[in-house]
């Protein structure tokens, strides 16, 4: 019923545009919020909704390909995948400042998204169809509160929201079907819509992705190391049945080298930091008490399976004073 009510609510909003060819675009990331918003939208107006998935080169392992299959094949959403990974990674070259990374990724994202939307609009116009008038966003209630009282610590410490600029540039009206819901309600809605549990319970992932989890310069090889370590970490957490108990977990690659030993040889390689937190609102968070046996297994797998890493550490800092992301 919750889904039905929401759906009716925003279908009415779209219909007021009257033109039967009004189109809606929206960015999807493969995360819970954007996927559920996109599913609702495609249920409402079918092919007149175009989802755009931008590959920024700093997503998790296999994430783009898996999200494409899920959105397009399982959920039947009209999807364009824009592979801009080289563009993003090229612009990140030599950049080490976290806010600078966010700015580059946010601006490049807007540029790529707008170019894709313009292509879609042109194709539609050529076939006698209408213009893009709306932008779908998966905004949740906590985001609404945060932007009203935009003086909160997270707003000044890290600039989180990367798509605001889209609205100014494209002059689109916004549709936010989830703006009155909290995360647990969105998950409930996902279950009502029969969206895969794997996606419904997925941990949040920041827009700038692995770029803010590779401390220091973001190069393709550094991203690869962080990605592989993260994959092993999450795989083991899931196998241990702890994934849902943890609010967010990831592996960060530290910009330091440390001495190790392998057989008869001395090694001088990088360090992976494992982070896992429990939180309800992400404004404060406790570090998760990961079982030692599990940490042991994860550490040994990462050191054995990921080239370039000879040391793994576990982060035991709560927020505040630490933040959830390292950058
Ligand atoms: P922090 O690190 O501020 O993170 O404790 C709180 C939550 O926000 C996410 N986060 C971001 N999300 N763009 C995003 O879309 C960002 O730049 C960004 N920085 C942090 C973080 O993953 C956590 O869930």
What's the topology here?
Blueprint: H1 2-15, E1 23-28, H2 32-45, E2 49-55, H3 63-74, E3 79-83, H4 85-92, H5 98-126, E4 132-136, H6 141-148, H7 153-157, H8 164-170, E5 173-175, H9 183-192, H10 197-200, H11 220-239, E6 248-262, E7 265-278, E8 286-287, H12 292-305, E9 309-314
Parallel strand pairs: 1-2, 1-4, 2-3, 4-5, 7-9
Antiparallel strand pairs: 6-7, 7-8
Bound molecules: xanthosine-5'-monophosphate (XMP).
EC number: 6.3.5.2
Protein name: GMP synthase [glutamine-hydrolyzing]
Organism: Boothiomyces macroporosus
Summarize the structure.
Its EC number is 6.3.5.2. The chain has 327 residues and is of the alpha/beta class.
Explain what the structure shows.
Pathway: Purine metabolism; GMP biosynthesis; GMP from XMP (L-Gln route): step 1/1. It comes from Boothiomyces macroporosus. GO terms for molecular function: ATP binding; GMP synthase activity. The chain is α/β, with parallel strands linked by helices. The protein has a five-stranded parallel β-sheet, sandwiched between helices. Strands 6, 7, 8 and 9 form a four-stranded mixed β-sheet that branches. Strand 1, helix 2 and strand 2 form a beta-alpha-beta unit. Helix 11 packs antiparallel against helix 12. The radius of gyration is 21 Å and the shape is globular. The two termini are 40 Å apart. The structure holds xanthosine-5'-monophosphate (XMP). Xanthosine-5'-monophosphate (XMP) binds next to loops.
List keywords for this structure.
purine biosynthesis, 5-stranded parallel β-sheet, EC 6.3.5.2, binds xanthosine-5'-monophosphate, alpha/beta, GMP synthase activity, about 325 residues, nucleotide-binding, GMP biosynthesis
């Amino acid at each position: 019923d919750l889904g039905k009510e929401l759906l009716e609510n925003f279908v009415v909003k779209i219909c007021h545009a009257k033109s039967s060819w009004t189109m809606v675009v929206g960015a999807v990331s493969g995360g819970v919020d954007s996927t559920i918003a996109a599913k609702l939208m495609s249920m409402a107006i079918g092919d007149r909704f175009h989802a755009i998935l931008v590959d920024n080169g700093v997503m998790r392992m296999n994430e783009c390909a898996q999200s494409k299959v899920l959105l397009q094949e399982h959920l039947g959403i009209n999807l364009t995948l824009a592979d801009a990974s080289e563009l993003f990674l090229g612009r990140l070259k030599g950049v080490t400042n976290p806010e600078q990374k966010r700015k580059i990724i946010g601006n490049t994202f807007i540029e790529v998204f707008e170019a894709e939307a313009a292509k879609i609009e042109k194709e539609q116009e050529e076939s006698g169809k209408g213009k893009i008038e709306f932008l779908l966003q998966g905004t949740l209630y906590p985001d609404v509160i945060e932007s009203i009282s935009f003086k909160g610590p997270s707003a000044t410490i890290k600039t989180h929201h990367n798509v605001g600029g889209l609205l100014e540039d494209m002059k689109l009206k916004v549709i936010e079907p989830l703006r009155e819901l909290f995360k647990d309600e969105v998950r409930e809605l996902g279950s009502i819509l029969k969206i895969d549990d794997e996606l419904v319970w997925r941990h949040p992932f920041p827009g700038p992705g692995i770029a803010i989890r590779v401390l220091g310069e973001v190069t393709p090889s550094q991203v690869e190391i962080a990605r592989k370590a993260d994959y092993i970490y999450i795989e083991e957490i899931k196998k241990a049945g702890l994934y849902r108990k943890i609010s967010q977990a990831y592996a960060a690659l530290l910009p330091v080298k440390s001495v190790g030993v392998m057989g008869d040889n001395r090694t001088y390689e990088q360090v992976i930091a494992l982070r896992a937190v429990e939180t309800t609102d992400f404004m404060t968070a406790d570090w998760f008490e990961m079982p030692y046996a599990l940490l042991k297994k994860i550490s040994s797998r990462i050191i054995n399976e990921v080239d370039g890493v000879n040391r793994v550490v576990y982060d035991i800092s709560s927020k505040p004073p630490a933040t959830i992301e390292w950058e």
